[in-house]
Specification:
The complex is a heterodimer of chains A (about 325) and B (about 190). Chain A contains eleven helices and four strands; from the N terminus they run ααβαβββαααααααα. Chain A is mostly helical and about 325 residues long. The longest helix of chain A has about 45 residues. The radius of gyration of chain B is 24 Å and the shape is rod-shaped. Classes of the chains: A mainly alpha (about 325), B mainly alpha (about 190).
């Protein structure tokens, strides 16, 4: 299905992320309900369990909401820059901030030859953008503008906050499932009294709860990764809304994906934040359900739809296949 | 009993109307803010140009006409600031044309091209041109949002009553579609 305007692409991406979040909510609800009913034999118990898990998950995420950006910046060894030290970078960020109608974020540079970038911060008033020195060297002004448009779009679309919401839900599911499975298999002495409450339905739901408790965390994680990929596509389309120049972003994607350097400060915990997946491994991992970023070829082809160009030919796509 | 129902309906309608009104106020204010942001960028360009002209003047003895064109166009743009938006847009576009000619001419002077001051100023002017464009683009985005706000149902029913009028997009002058004339001759 061709989406030839960035408005259309943005609408599809937003809709799909909302559907995915509803799916995770439903999963949490189902898990909470079956556990609660299966153990206590009443709907009140079910509701209490679900709300309890959500509350605990939210509490654990509060710290990350307020302090998360400083943590990520510190762990990436990022140094703040200003108009004197990096005039062109600051100018390009300023241009994109104007186009997006957001305040100027703080700008950081990471000293690494691998080209990459990320944005963090709970809302546009508290946002930071970081780029590597490798990115500044290897990209020209148009390409840099495309990448920074993408990062500022993450800020403008409240993606950091959105992924935190999803992480809270997924974390709650994992927590709930974990507690329940431990309780069931190691608290075996209580089992006999359970048979008396709620009757057959509770027993059935109890079994269902065990199955869900095993599967739900995995499924929730897959949904979380799918949401992450949708938000990346959304940021690409939003970048074009800002720059009105799909080719700049397209060239940047191709350049960054082909670069073989490994970004040393990135690790599995922070990989999802970056512009392209900074963890380069040899197995073909892109295009799978386990990837935080969409495959580069798909991102480039979606941008090509916006200008009516043909998708990448086989020969051009070869060096980029399997990359995200 | 009916009294309570009527009261509830009135309160609900009032809340909806307040929501519509406040939403439209917010959108209209964003439009005004975007408009003044454009002015900020235009002024920035006016302020940068004299520095650029001085930086290159010493190197370009043969190119005085190009420099004079830039200086005059800048003065005209500053004066046009008080003559309304269409006159101002026309003057600013003329200024853009003279700056493009200047940069094209600078290409002929290797010493000048490599000069750090000139490079820094070129970057400043490039970014200023971009910032002017992006401010206008953002202004159009806010106008779109606002016009959608007052024209879609149910807001359109109340928009006129509350005094919200449609706003115009920023449109490039017809002359902007012409290719800028770049004079590369040495005379």
């Amino acid at each position: 299905m061709m989406k030839t305007t960035f408005y259309a692409q943005e609408a599809v991406n937003r809709r799909e992320s909302v559907i995915l979040v509803i799916a995770v909510l439903a999963l949490l609800g189902a898990l909470g309900f079956t556990i609660g009913y299966g153990t206590s034999g009443s709907t009140a118990g079910a509701v209490a369990v679900t709300l309890g898990a959500l509350g605990l998950g939210a509490l654990l995420s509060v710290g990350s909401y307020f302090g998360g950006d400083k943590l990520v910046l510190a762990s990436s060894d990022a140094k703040e820059v200003d108009a004197e030290s990096e005039p062109q970078l600051m100018n390009v960020v300023q241009e994109m901030a104007l186009a997006a109608g957001v305040p100027m974020p703080k700008v950081y540079v990471i000293d690494d030859t691998a080209p990459n970038a990320f944005a963090t911060g709970r809302d546009p008033q508290h946002a930071s953008v970081a780029v590597t020195s490798g990115l500044l060297q290897k990209l020209d002004r148009e390409e840099l503008q495309g990448v920074l448009g993408h990062e500022l779009s993450h800020v403008r679309n409240f993606d950091i906050r959105f992924s935190l919401l999803v992480a809270v839900l997924v974390g709650s599911i994992a927590l709930l499932a974990d507690f329940f499975l431990r309780f069931t298999f190691w608290g075996g002495g209580r089992r006999s009294s359970r048979d008396d409450r709620g009757g057959g339905l509770a027993a059935i739901l109890f079994i269902v709860a065990i199955v869900l408790a095993i599967l739900a965390p995995i499924v929730a994680r897959l949904v979380q990764l799918a949401v992450s990929r949708q938000r990346e596509y959304l940021a690409d389309a939003s970048s074009v809304e800002l720059t009105r120049n799909p080719q700049g972003l397209e060239r940047a994607l191709a350049k960054i994906a082909e670069d073989q350097e490994v970004l040393e400060v990135a690790n599995r915990a922070t990989a999802h934040l970056y512009f392209t997946n900074p963890i380069k491994k040899f197995e073909a991992r892109a295009g799978s359900m386990f990837s935080t970023h969409p495959p580069i070829i798909d991102r480039i082809n979606r941008l090509r739809q916006l200008t009516g160009e043909q998708p990448l030919a086989e020969a051009e796509a070869q060096p980029l296949s399997g990359l995200d | 009993m009916e009294l309570i129902v009527v009261l509830v309906v009135i309160v609900v309608v009032a809340v909806i109307l307040i929501g519509i009104y406040n939403g439209l106020i917010g959108r209209r204010n964003r439009v005004d803010e975007a408009l003044s942001q454009i002015q900020v960028q235009l002024k920035r360009r006016h302020d940068l140009i004299p520095n650029l002209v001085e930086a290159v003047r010493g190197y370009m003895q043969f190119e005085q006409k190009v420099l004079t064109d830039v200086t005059n166009a800048r003065a005209a743009a500053v004066a046009a600031g008080s003559q309304g938006v269409p006159a101002q847009a026309q003057a600013e576009n003329a200024l853009t044309g003279t700056l493009r000619s200047l940069f094209a001419v600078v290409e002929n002077y290797p010493d000048l091209k490599a000069n750090q001051n000139v490079l820094a100023l070129q970057e400043q002017l490039t970014t200023t041109e971009n910032q002017i464009s992006f401010s206008r683009q953002h202004y159009n985005a806010t106008v779109l949002d606002y016009n959608n706000g007052i024209q879609t149902f149910p807001n359109n029913v109340f928009a006129g009553m509350f005094g919200f009028a449609k706003r115009d997009f920023f449109e490039a002058e017809p002359e902007a579609a012409d290719v800028p004339q770049v004079n590369l001759s040495l005379s």
